[in-house]
Design goal:
- By secondary structure, this protein is mostly beta strands.
- It is built from 1 helix and 12 strands, in the order βββββαβββββββ.
- The strands form 2 sheets. Strands 5-4-1-2-9-8-11-12 form an 8-stranded antiparallel sheet, with no helix packed on it.
- The chain starts with a strand and ends with a strand.
């Protein structure tokens, strides 16, 4: 509890918006095991920077061979995606007090970057993406994700945590059009 990861910054060097995400983390998470999906525009270095509570920074970097993500056409029918907009799934294994459990929050959202080309209208699809996901357990904030256009369609956050009391896992999502969704 004296030394913990306060933030994880995700940077994708050659993406149109390189600063891709910031995970604000609660010290109560303990050992960090967190995952999300991102879009990658072209072959690039991807960095995760752990900012500790004492202000020190620790970075890992990987060269990623992927391309087209930020400007790739939406993978789903836009009308169907908009009909599901904001619907969420919260998945959590049976939790026992004091034992690490895995949880996942998935949000139905097209996460349009503003760089995608609509084949029918021959114009760009306006940006509409998730800006923030706040995850709480037993009314305590566990994770606050600040995101941009690099987070993938239907954003997902998978993580481990150790409940110290009984509670309910909840999520609230805010997007770039000031729409809010919660579960």
């Amino acid at each position: 509890s004296e030394r913990y990861i306060k933030n994880i910054h995700i940077i994708i060097d050659k993406n149109p918006m390189p600063y891709s995400a910031n995970f604000h983390l609660s010290p109560s998470l303990g050992e960090i095991d967190i995952a999300t999906r991102v879009r990658i525009d072209q072959y690039t270095d991807m960095r995760a920077i752990a900012e500790m509570n004492d202000g020190s920074l620790h970075m890992v970097s990987r060269y990623v061979k992927a391309s087209g993500g930020c400007s790739a056409p939406a993978g789903k029918d836009m009308e169907a995606a908009m009909a599901r907009l904001g619907k969420m799934q919260i998945r959590m294994r049976d939790a026992n007090i004091g034992e690490t459990t895995q949880a996942q929050v998935v949000v139905s959202h097209p996460n349009n970057s503003g760089l995608q080309f609509d084949q029918k209208t021959r114009g760009y699809i306006p940006p509409h993406y998730v800006k923030e996901i706040i995850i709480n357990f037993a009314d305590e904030n566990l994770i606050k994700l600040e995101a941009g256009i690099s987070i993938s369609e239907d954003p997902s956050v998978r993580f481990n945590f150790t409940p110290l009391k009984h509670g309910v896992l909840k999520a609230m999502v805010n997007d770039s059009k000031d729409m809010t969704y919660s579960m």
